[in-house]
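Shape matters. As here.
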Amino acid sequence: MSRNARDKRNTTELPPELTQARRFGKTRSAQSRALLEDYVELIADLLATAGEARPTDIARRLGVSHATAINTISRLKREGLAKGLPYRGVFLTDTGQALAERTRARHRIVVDVLVALGVPTEIAEADAEGIEHHVSEVTLKAFTHFLQTPGFQRSSRKALSSSGTSPSRTLA
């Protein structure tokens, strides 16, 4: 076999340049947006449970420095997602609250699908933190459809059993 034939057989077909650039651009955009989504989701949770969202609490819960939290909160404010009151912490604007709710809903759908596939809940929660920011609306709709499929009972979606086997899908 000639070297050219071997080389052609071992290479993968690249997508067209514009297609590949669009895919990478989508990923970069999602990574940038993921940070903001994590912050607004946490701020909403802190406001709901503690009545306030202080930069110190945000930094501790996200595992970042106080300076990093302050910089990101400033970005949230510039983008109209949050506002600050002197000596009162951080609050979400209506836009920020809506983003937090959408992000939380995406998170729940991703967790539910992972658990339905047999992933233990603790791992599903951790994995969903990354996946939720990169999944498209089309994929989310497919996930939702899967979870609502007749014959698929929510009670059958238990994490891996101690034997290491995944739950079987309950059919109607």
User: Anything to note?
Assistant: The beta strands are 82-85, 89-92. The chain has seven helices and two strands.
